[in-house]
């Protein structure tokens, strides 16, 4: 029996040479072929069996086993093709479960990079697993193929393992050449050792050593496996099409992911040269993520469109984006010692418990010098052009999961010294990584059953579209577009023509509901159609402020429209709007300068005289046709003095929708008092007939009188109520905008605080400044559509709107009966249990009614 801390290799002579194996040793054998490894493993296993040791063999999905005789050995078959996180986590858990002083034989580490196409991930594997084995005082054998890995990989391996040993077989004789033996030393330890049976003889004479070593295979030029794969792909460009197609599919599997529908679209619209170009613009390795793929795929579909190819190629702005592969995310976690914390956070009990700590550590980690050097090369490419660092996770923007607004995007104005620009960029990447632990993102994944999924975070780095105008940088217009108009407020609207949500400047104002500002909503069947506002309200319900990048102060900021356009914007300003005539007249009467009147962004000339709306209609139709699904895009456009423009597709993803449903017969109202509410238009969610079991109502008069803090408390209380009503048909009704960030405009709930509602109703109280917003295309809208929540807005100044608030309030408030364990402000929040109440909507007539079922 071995002494308690000394373990035999099974080769007595070699035990003497290296002073035995010690508990906690990881032993890596560099081999030319697996048969060499099998020989040293057999010595080791035979000895362990003699000593009645607990032996575990972890096979890396290989049919050729390293151990031939498996009796008295526990075997785990794991295939690395399941992905780094799942594979590594599974082994991590096996080690924890098997406990202390277990003796392991692992497969060939080189098999990992053949599955992952990544030296980084191979390094990350042993950085995670080796210390964990050491912690449990285990001894483990690994093999790695000689000359198949870069010097960086071997260097990291040498730092991490306790023993690094070369095996050579020369003329049927086995030689072991120690390269590293931690905390042990002898005069002959680092000479080659000739192994005859269980004896080991060091080769010490210079003549014998030179003669022996000259027979060893040595490759002084070692390319990473991924780089070799790319070289192979480049070489296949000159080969037959069948070989190119095979290489195309391989690169798609490595870069894109496992969504079969997206992958087939990539096969159709990317040629091999496209994929090689994408790969050479990737920092690190791994998947580039859903947002990157969506942008690239949309651009390729438009450029190769049979019908509009020439027009789109003339209009589309070329992209020169970079992609930070998802492997960098894992490397960042491993190198900063967060892997164990990430494992704990992904458990059921640790999901929320450890998220704050993990977020903090993600925000404060460091990148390796190797990665920082690649970041710097990319920043040198962009120079001082502003860039945006955007999340591009594996699950993001896919069929079924949009993750709209759940992860961060960070603008880098990119001013200052190279060192300052690198520091700002690294901070932006860390911010995106940390956003995986945002509460909204955690809840979104949890609610959609994605909390156990492998959510890898890639990053898309894009040059910001636009130009400098004075100290400000911005595109002329930006926005979001949807190929199917699910928010129809007029029965004449053609829902299949699509819709835009348009702003001047950066598109941040188009995707978020912002204070006192309104994006312009455009129905592409009739771009001049105005949504539910009178002419005199045009200025009130328009965009007043512009999001820009401030060159002077090196930050993203918001400025009044007059400030943004005070310099020459290198385009005809009149296509975007006009001066506010009413304010000009008032200023004249007051004998003040009328030129100081605010500029009114109504986009009238753009929509009436330019080809922009027709182009956007074509773009959405082409993309929707190829996706065979409604799509949602983000875009920018820049104009010249002749009103010609270039278009940049920033993002494209499937628009999650449940469809229209069957036609619904809406009951005729005998009189206005026979319903809770009725309206023409202003709803979203198609045709429905839905029983309403409960109504959660926020009283506007009571809400208005609350303090700023009190209004936030109401939002949190709505969240508590929301949890109680899972799987119930509940209608949420309240003043102004649900989900606003400004309590004066509505109730500032997070989406996860109303996600269990079946119907959401926004009620206008125009005298109080509480107005719903047609938020079509915003992140909030995406959440509504994905969750299947029916939406209706009731405008008090609309002649077709009926709202019997007093009838609603005649119900008994049962809030305290429903919520017993929390103090709910029942003056503000009312919960009503209803009977025989239903909501009806019909997309054809555009009628929505909440009334009693008269058939009962």
TrEMBL record:
Coiled coil: none annotated. GO terms for molecular function: ATP binding; kinase activity. Residues 288-669 form the Pyruvate phosphate dikinase AMP/ATP-binding domain. Transmembrane segments: none annotated. InterPro entries: ATP_grasp_subdomain_1 (IPR013815), PPDK_AMP/ATP-bd (IPR002192). Keywords: Kinase, Pyruvate, Transferase. This is Pyruvate phosphate dikinase, PEP/pyruvate binding domain. It comes from Romboutsia lituseburensis DSM 797.
